[in-house]
Amino acid sequence: MNESDFEFAIRKDVRNNPIVREIDRARLREMWGWVAVGALLLVVVLFTALQHFKLIRYGYDIERMQETRAAEERLNRHLRLEIETLRSPDRIAHIATSQLRLVAPTPAASVVIERVTTADPPAKGLVASR
User: Fold this and answer.
1) Which of 13, 62, 102, 107 could pair with 96 as two cysteines, CB 3.0-4.6 Å apart?
2) CA 130 to CA 127: how far, in whole Å?
3) How far is CA 17 from CA 10, 13, 22, in A?
4) Alpha carbons 6 and 90: distance in angstroms, whole number
5) How many CB atoms lie within 10 A of CB 96?
6) What is the per-residue pLDDT across 2-38, written as a single tens digit (0 to 9) for each?
7) Residue 36 and residue 29 in contact, taking contact as beta carbons nearer than 8 Å
């Protein structure tokens, strides 16, 4: 071994404590700019996603309301049919004679009342005044 090899074999302890790193203002400003751009893009993406999911939810709500409306229309049709069957004159006559023990009127007991229509009042030129 020669002398130059010996110098490299000895490890010198170098202390870097006195070295202070400076803050790179330009790099820091650029980093905060990119953070702001990223935050803006994130807000835009979140807003778009929110609008999309609201649209989907409103679509489901509309579909559910249409199904409810169709069910209510079916029920309404059924109830109207039931009302018409309950108003049937044959059914009313049957209940009157069987449950209430009423009797059908005879033609002699029937009285026909005619509606009398009044005549129009005369014109003013024909009315005599005193």
Assistant:
1) 102
2) 10
3) 21, 12, 14
4) 128
5) 13
6) 655 555 556 666 666 666 778 889 999 999 999 999 9
7) no
Q: For residue 127, give both structure tokens.
A: 């009315």
Question: The tokens 């980093």 sit on which residue?
Answer: 31
User: Model-level pTM?
Assistant: 0.49
Q: Which residue has the tokens 């109207």?
A: 80
The backbone torsions φ and ψ at residue 106, rounded to the nearest 5 degrees and listed phi first, read: -85, 160
At residue 115, what are phi and psi to the nearest 5 degrees?
-85, 130
Token duo for residue 63: 């579909």
DSSP string, 68-123: HHHHHHHHHHHHHHHHHHHT-HHHHHHHHHHTS---PPPTTT----PPPPPPPPPP
SS3 call for 21: coil
Amino acid at 88: S
Q: How many residues does the chain have?
A: 130
- Separation of alpha carbons 89 and 106, rounded Å: 18
Query: Which DSSP state fits 13?
Result: -
> 102: which residues sit within 8 A by CB, 6+ positions away?
96
